[in-house]
Design goal:
Blueprint (H helix, E strand, L loop, with lengths): L2 H5 L22 E11 L5 E10 L1 H8 L16 H10 L7 E5 L2 E3 L5 E8 L2 E14 L3 E6 L6 E5 L5 E4 L5 E7 L6 H6 L18 E7 L1
Parallel strand pairs: 1-8, 1-9
Antiparallel strand pairs: 1-2, 2-6, 3-4, 3-7, 5-6, 7-11, 10-11
Amino acid sequence: MTVSVRRLFGLAVAVTGLFGVTTAQAHPDVWITSTSELIYAPDGSLTGVRHAWTFDDMFTRGALQEIENKTKGVYTSEELAPLARINAESLKEFGYFTFAKADGKRAKFDEPVDYFMEYRDGALTLHFTLSLRAPVRPKELVIEVFDPTSFADFKFAEKQPVLLVGAPASCKLDVQRTPMAGSPGAKASGQTALDHGEDGDSGAVFTNRITVVCR
């Protein structure tokens, strides 16, 4: 587990005995609940993805130790701005944990924009938008959200995890939560990390998949 991965979330907390862990030995240390909006242009093409990632309690408490705030228990967007910037600038190294294919071809994203963090109900949430380098209008769009290093466990929110914003009426959305390795669902499907993609990323066992089919 590399230092850069931990810096990705702006968590300036010393953790001993964990560095140097191989990918095969890695396990989640950060838990993230994700909601996403797929943004469409008037012509029906997908232009980007707007994410909101809510971090677990332990991570939130550790990250807030580094933040100076004026009011106890309250953190403004201005006070959280440095943490949001570190998050956004570091995402590129890891492909923004967001991987898209349009009709089977890889679609690439630009750097995050409109990013900010908010603190609500005891949790930190990172908001940001990923614009596609070139808008796409595929018959089938697949977007996966996961961490290939298994440092972070992404989980889609239970209610309205994904919304289509401005999509053509013919587009149908399907959201799949991939079972973790060793779970009954994973055994039933026969899926392993080696079955995912061309890289065989171990983080694939934590993959959340969005599929949009437009007729």
